[in-house]
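Please complete every field before forwarding. Incomplete forms are returned to the sender.

SECTION A: IDENTIFIERS
Entry label: holo-417
Bound molecule: zinc ion
Molecule representation: SMILES string

SECTION B: INPUTS
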Amino acid sequence: MSGSIVRALKCRECGQEYPIEPIHVCEFCFGPLEVAYDYDKLKGKFTRALIESRPQTMWRYKELLPIDGEPTVGAQNGFTPLVRARNLEKALGVKELYIKNDSVCYPTLSFKDRVVSVALSKAVEFGFKTVACASTGNLAGSVAANAAAAGLESYVFIPHDLEQGKVLGAGIFGTKIIGIRGKYDDVNRLCSEVAGKYGWGFVNVNVRPFYAEGSKSLGYEIMEQLGWKVPKHVVVPMASGSLCTKIDKSIKEFIKLGLVEENGTAVYGAQATGCSPISKSVKEGTDLIHPVIADTIAKSLAIGNPADGFYANRVIRESGGWSEDVSDQEVIAAMKLLAETEGIFAETAGGVTLGCAQKMIESGRLPRDESIVLCITGNGLKTQEAVINEINKPRIIDASLKEFDVLAEADKAKLAS
Ligand SMILES: *Cc1c(COP(=O)(O)O)cnc(C)c1O
Ligand SMILES: [Zn+2]
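SECTION C: PREDICTED COMPLEX
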């Protein structure tokens, strides 16, 4: 089987096609560019058996990812567990619930390792020696780690007030880390200027069309792990809205290639109330996205002016899904619920996803008797600030059985009462 079936870059607005280069906007209408493929070349050749015969990484779907050769960065990334969440099913009163657990994605514990391995493999093909990104946190860590492993120079730009775990989780890799006084949207604006001037491979600026395609692997894996079935309902956290659109694209591609049967999958978007421009637009029944100034503990989702907001809105509405948002208190409660029922410590974005799902189950938007997949995209050890004061502190005793007996008795009495 040969490599990729990429045909061109194509403007999402006017359809103008471009050759494969590090560009991301249409010269004619300023619309965003997206990778287009010749799916016909795969008809009958890209089979379930072929995919299953390959190593368990996101690259088992390499024909549908936009690099020419073999991946040179992040060859082992992806293929995280899909967990049947039976305890959470009981807690929420639903029949069939799954968690796609990208909180354990290799190597930096968020789904950003997927997009970065595609972006940096493509950056190497383009000949970039320095790579960079504008990040809400997880992307910085993933670019830094994957660049280090690939022997690339890296610069990562972040808002100056990120969680300690996100800063540490990038800095440890020896990247050049720049904190910007401002919100992510200010960081992003600066990075557009830097990308133009310095000619680096910016994963989410000039390499963005390729980068974004990496998110499709999350959707492919869900379908394969469901036994080559589409989920009936899938709940996705939204920052720029890109992941939401790419899950939809992954499902349409697998249907087109005959790998799964269509079953009317509805896509649901989750945001924090303190940064909810996309969910607001869906709830209001409009496709106009009004930018906001983000203010939420879910910092990885804090994009006030979401680049793919319009497209995410369209996917959600056309698929028959819905969108919700939750307060910071609800985010924390959902993080604890997920941890206590399923043993999964998700970051704040995971609390957003579960919290929104919970709300939509209660309101009847998500039916209780059909399959639901929650995309858990990042790890709680990176956002400890959110829950550090919410947990049971250790009870300190001497190394004395007597002292422990007192605690155990007290626990027993509590349980009995
Ligand atoms: C980046 C990110 C997302 C979603 O990002 P999009 O820009 O919408 O693709 C979701 N969860 C986490 C933890 C992230 O870091
Ligand atoms: Zn165009």
